[in-house]
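Q: Got a minute? One more chain.
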Amino acid sequence: MYLYLVRHAVAHGRDPERWPDDSERPLTPEGEEDFRAVAQGLGQVVPRVDALLSSPYARAWRTAEILAGLKGWLEPKAFPALEPNMPPHKGVLALHAYDAAEAVALVGHRPCLHELSSYLITGREDGADIKIKKGGVVCISFDGLPDPGVGKLRWLFTPKILRS
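A: Always. Here it is, folded:
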């Protein structure tokens, strides 16, 4: 299995006046426009996925919707294990439902994706200092199920690389 961990695109800053519920905070118009170019680049590298799973938070969900517009990519499914402060073991357990998939994309947040990446590669959520920029993508491969410490880091692309 190839697992693609996508950090959501650039969102508005925290503002309790505008978004008392931070889960409703959206992408900025510029963030959305910029991510469209990133998505096109990602579509060249990853032509299809068997599942597109996203945090239900507005900024991650909109990022996943943009990815769903790519040929060969499916509509997103809500995946609460990708919410910002979920522990990585919850994400790994939830991924076992996709054991027959060859390619799965996850759209989420910091720190969840950073910790999940480290956990999958080293077996510890703090075992590697992986930083995913907003709109960036990490590819981790597995010979079997995505379990802690058995993933192989294939690449980490910044948005700039994917836009080019």
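A: The helical segments are 29-45, 58-68, 88-95, 112-122, 159-163.
Q: Perfect, thanks.
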